[in-house]
Amino acid sequence: MPLTIAPDAHPTRRSTAILNLLLPHHRTTDQGPAPAERFPHQLRQIADFVRDDAPVTFTLPGFPCKSPNPAKVLGHLPDQGERLSLGFLNTLCTEIERIHPPGARMVVCSDGHAFGDLVRVPDEHIDAYADELRTLIDHVGLARLSVFDLRDVFGDLPHDTKRAHLHKSYAPTLDGLRAEVRADDNTLALYRGITRFLVEDTADHAGTRSALQRECRQRAYGVIQRSRAWGDLIADHHPRSVRLSIHPQPIGARKFGIRLLDAPDAWTTPWHSTALRRTDGTWTLMPRAKAAELGRLIECDGRPSHFEQD
After folding, report:
1. 165-175 burial code (b ≥16 CB/10 A, e <16)
2. Quick one: how far is CA 31 from the chain centroid?
3. Residue 220 φ/ψ region, left for φ over 0, alpha for ψ in the -120 to 50 degree band, beta for the rest
4. Cα–Cα distance for residue pair 218/188, rounded to 1 Å
5. Global confidence as pTM
6. Partner residues linked to 285 by β-bridges
7. Residues 280-308: pLDDT tens digits?
């Protein structure tokens, strides 16, 4: 249990204590761990909520949709990986309440519709995924979580129209993004990581591997453009929030990378993998094909949920 901080403690002390709860879960490729003072942007943002005696609001873009590759996932709906991840986020908010009585809330900004056409996932699957996230949150009683997606901004407009509005209003130029990839190591790592996911997620490509890689490199730029656009839209709708990221972030960056579950690398997420319960009771994420070699399939509510190691 974290140290209880007196309600009248200085905002800086309470903000540091809150950030210290996040630091063990920092998702980064930098060498760590790093102390809270290395994250001045997050400390200032959290201190604003503390001074106002208001709940700390986090926004987390992610939970877009399941990978379309059946060798990686169990289907197109959330499963045990999402259940565990959402439970972790809700617990994190609960722990913050012990330090900061107004507590915290987490807005899960489901971004599947922002780039569904680029990752080749049908919009109806993305709708079903986000709707199931909301149902799961309500059913399990994860009261500190909520889901925000493009439907909350553009209502019932056609999905392609929503994407066009998002891109026109917020997306960086392709030339500017290409220049950034060439000049910035972190952006280059993101570009390479997304390219790798796009290649892995393509299960039915009829051409050569090199042709697929060229195509995915082009689509990766579009995914980053839309992701940036989605991030700026979130900032407009949640201007005071502390921005989290499911991608690795450098120490001290304006976005705080957060690891949801144990995984073999800093890029694996529940929607690109399957959950495996090890014999010691701990959980990890891995491709479905590998999990199937290590354990037996478990169903929940009549649907495939995860694997348990024998």
Report:
1. bbbeebbeeee
2. 21
3. alpha
4. 14
5. 0.91
6. 275
7. 999 999 999 999 999 999 999 899 999 99
